[in-house]
């Protein structure tokens, strides 16, 4: 996969999955909406756009560029091990996904990081656009972390592109308001995080918010004891969002941008619970 085409590849995949999930949500909704799309989608999509601009404007190199440079210079762990290329690809994707899981746990555990991450959780509904609704500064920090991991690990540049596509695609998928047959959900969640699995994480009940942190692979939650199979009140009875943010007029784009500074932390950070 050509590193120079990374932006185009990711953009085409992102738009394709977004449109597909939006269509499937409309055809097979899991829950009735409490707020109209026109009220939520502009702010959600604007968040990812501003975040992408911030990353490209402030980071000297993004993860795939660092991985390509590490490959040329022989930097990083994998570039100094005699292992088959296929193994390097698999290890790279798994390590990067594990790092994102741990990052997600930290955003719930550290109050300063939670200030940024609560922008994601304050959505009053959950659908595919919630999967890209992250504060631009959190997007920047996440990109910086992946860049550092790429430098230390030395993954193949193509594997980094593959991971970024998988991460974006599965985030759109597992946040989707999509009803899957129970048997299909059970089969898929053996490997990947499904919408029903991740929806639990967006419950207003704090002990449910602190579960199911995975974005792509579902194994991490089972491995580290953060897996919860179903919400206590069921998927139709559960309340989405944060208890301190129920007024939609406080959740427009401009207010979401300043929420980390002006917002109420609530009782969410793990070390307060």
From TrEMBL:
Record bears the keyword Zinc: no
Domain Fatty acid hydroxylase: from-to ranges: 89-226
GO terms of molecular function: iron ion binding; oxidoreductase activity
Transmembrane feature ranges: 7-29
GO biological process: one example: lipid biosynthetic process
Predominant localisation class: membrane
Statement: the UniProt record of this protein carries the keyword Ubl conjugation: no
Locations listed in the record: Membrane
Key words of the record: Membrane, Transmembrane, Transmembrane helix
GO cellular component, one term: membrane
One Pfam family cited in the UniProt record for this chain: FA_hydroxylase
Name this polypeptide is given: Sterol desaturase/sphingolipid hydroxylase, fatty acid hydroxylase superfamily
Species annotation: Desulfacinum infernum DSM 9756
Taxonomic path: Bacteria, Pseudomonadati, Thermodesulfobacteriota, Syntrophobacteria, Syntrophobacterales
């Amino acid at each position: 996969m050509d590193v120079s085409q990374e932006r185009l590849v990711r953009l085409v995949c992102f738009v394709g999955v977004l449109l597909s999930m939006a269509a499937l949500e409309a055809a097979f909704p899991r829950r009735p909406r409490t707020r109209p799309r026109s009220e939520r989608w502009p702010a959600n999509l604007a968040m990812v756009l501003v975040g992408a601009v911030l990353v490209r404007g402030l980071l000297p190199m993004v993860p795939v560029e660092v991985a390509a440079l590490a490959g040329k210079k022989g930097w990083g762990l994998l570039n100094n091990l005699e292992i088959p290329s296929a193994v390097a690809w698999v290890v790279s994707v798994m390590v990067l996904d594990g790092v994102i899981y741990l990052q997600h746990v930290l955003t719930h555990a550290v109050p300063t990081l939670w200030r940024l991450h609560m922008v994601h959780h304050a959505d009053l509904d959950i659908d595919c656009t919630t999967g890209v609704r992250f504060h631009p500064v959190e997007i920047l920090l996440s990109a910086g972390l992946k860049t550092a991991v790429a430098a230390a690990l030395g993954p193949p540049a193509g594997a980094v592109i593959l991971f970024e596509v998988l991460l974006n695609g599965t985030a759109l998928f597992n946040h989707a308001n999509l009803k899957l047959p129970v048997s299909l959900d059970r089969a898929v969640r053996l490997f990947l995080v499904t919408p029903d699995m991740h929806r639990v994480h967006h419950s207003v009940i704090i002990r449910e918010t602190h579960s199911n942190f995975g974005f792509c692979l579902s194994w991490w939650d089972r491995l580290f004891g953060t897996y919860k199979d179903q919400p206590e009140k069921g998927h139709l009875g559960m309340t989405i969002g944060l208890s301190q943010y129920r007024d939609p007029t406080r959740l427009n784009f401009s207010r979401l941008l300043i929420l980390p500074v002006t917002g109420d932390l609530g009782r969410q950070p793990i070390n307060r619970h």
